[in-house]
Amino acid sequence: MSWPLLILAGLFEIGWAIGLEYSDGLSKPVPALGTVVALIISMVLLAQAIKDLPIGTAYAVWTGIGAVGTASLGIILFDEPATLARIGFISVILVGIVGLHFVSGGH
Predict the structure, then answer these.
(1) Neighbours of 38 (CB within 10 A)
(2) Mean pLDDT estimate for the chain
């Protein structure tokens, strides 16, 4: 159950990171509230996941999911550059996440 919790924690990390943009640095109350709620949920889920997973693996996967998702949504939602190099490096992070999952007995 730890891996699904960790993945969900990573998805909420994407939510709060994207929320920072929509909340204009937490200056808009409604998006700021959603951002803070997503942050709390992400942390609680991460805390639950590390009960059964090594902290180094869990933290690397959590931040990796957040990085890949946030960078990808930045391209889609905020018209950030989608260069070949940028997509390539995002893919490298994704490979690292999948690799950690498999070498950590998560399959």
Answers:
(1) 20
(2) 95
